[in-house]
Amino acid sequence: MVIETERLLLREFTHEDFPALFEMFSDPETMRHYPKPFDENRTKDWIEWNLQNYKDYGFGLWAVVLKKTGDFIGDCGLTIQNIDGDLLPEIGYHINKKYWRRGFGSEAARAVRDWAFEHTEYDCLYSYMKYTNIGSYSTAMANGMKKIKEYSDEKNEISYVYAITRKEWSALER
Ligand SMILES: CC(C)(COP(=O)(O)OP(=O)(O)OC[C@H]1O[C@@H](n2cnc3c(N)ncnc32)[C@H](O)[C@@H]1OP(=O)(O)O)[C@@H](O)C(=O)NCCC(=O)NCCS
Question: How many structural domains compose the chain?
């Protein structure tokens, strides 16, 4: 287990998470801001990518689990992403739509932000998304981030970039 919050546990993924993860990643509504939902192979590759990230960096996207029931509800964590040509630490999240709009995404994202500033040397953390992804950028704002940039790219047409600096984080009331 990596992080505990009021309602959630964040822990490393294992291959056993495949069915629950695939249910989320294969859902067209959840993935409507992506080019297409993930198929089985894409989901398996995604798990492998994270297992490798844990080894290479000591972090990755983690499984988000409800403390009360043990139910898997999504993923949230830190990865290195190419954002407009720069490799930057990015907080990412996906929550199973059964659990949307109950504050779980922002509760997980805030915990990952705090973990990252406490356990890494990064001076700025980022979240980026397709410009149409209101849920995603609202979660970034709930995470204390501000929009710092937008740029055109092939994947998202237009990407929005949100960020919070270590200094801004230190000044937050937590
Ligand atoms: C983005 C996502 C993880 C948010 O999860 P969540 O648990 O519903 O988020 P929260 O309940 O913590 O909401 C956080 C904020 O976003 C807002 N929000 C969430 N979904 C929203 C939506 N569809 N439209 C408008 N606002 C939304 C909430 O109102 C809240 O704002 P507030 O702090 O001002 O009250 C979820 O919508 C999701 O899984 N989306 C699909 C996957 C995805 O696109 N991930 C991001 C890839 S870049």
Answer: 1
